[in-house]
Every structure is written in structure tokens, then in C-alpha cells.
Design a protein that fits this description.
This protein has 144 residues and is an alpha/beta fold. It contains 6 helices and 5 strands; from the N terminus they run E-H-E-H-E-H-E-H-E-H-H. The protein has a 5-stranded parallel β-sheet with strand order 2-1-3-5-4, sandwiched between helices. Helix 4 links the parallel strand 4 and strand 5. The longest helix has 13 residues. 41% of the residues are buried. The structure holds D-ribose.
Amino acid sequence: MKISIASDHAGFEQKEHLRAFLEGLGHEVCDHGPATDDRVDYPDYAVPVAKDVAEGRADRGVLVCGTGIGMALAADKIAGVRAANIITPQFAALCREHNDANVITLSGRFVEPEVNEEILRTFLTTDFGGGRHAGRVEKIMALD
Ligand code: RB5
């Protein structure tokens, strides 16, 4: 899978860890930075990842900040993106099955790296359920 990833300073360490994790799984990862943990503004990093997904350059997006909340708020402003802030593997499965999320936003400060690994693995291997969920997702996308 082609995966676009970025973080802010609060998510930098886990972004580095998760990029290596994804590459180890055999994914093609495009890292939009940052390259250090110097303080940055998370919307500046959310947008390139969201646009990669919206414009078809990436299959999925991964964003890491302190909570994941700011990244989700910013990424969801880009038409075509369904970003979900996820802190448990169960919610990772549900954001795929029910919501067809194409961008996941993670917490670098409140969730352990091993849990984020499991969240990512679940996010990347769970299919959209379709059926009754499809019309609901279409209604979300009609709001773009
Ligand atoms: C940075 O201090 C923090 O606000 C940011 O990483 C994120 O948690 C925002 O939602």
C-alpha cells in the first residue's frame, strides 16, 4: 500500500517509529516530515498528507500529534478525506468497517507505540463493510 505520513513535534518520535514499522510491513511510505522535533504547527503537516490521499497519490494517510485531535480536525477539511482520531484497535476496526476512514490520526503523547502499531495494523487490514454503511458515508461525502 502507498501510505503518506506526517506529524508535528509532539508526534515526531512516534512518527519516526511508525514509519519504520510500516516499511517493515512492506508498505511504500512517503514521509512529509518534520525531520526534527522542533516546534511546528500541525495543520501545516496534516494538509500534504490529506491531499496525497484525496488526490490519489496515497492509499491511506497517517498523522501523529499530541492527541491526534488537531490533525483530524485539519485533515477533515480537505475534500475526499475521512480522517478519524483513533486510540484503540477496536475503534481502528470500526472506523474502517463503518466509516471507510482513509486517514488515521494518532496520539504520540497518550498512546504507547506498541498500541499505535496494533491500531495501524488493524486500520490497514480492515475492509469497509459497505451495505447499510455505504449510504451514510455517501451522505458525509456530499457535505464536502
Ligand atoms: C501541541 O502542543 C499539541 O497541541 C498538538 O500536538 C495536538 O495535540 C493538537 O491537537
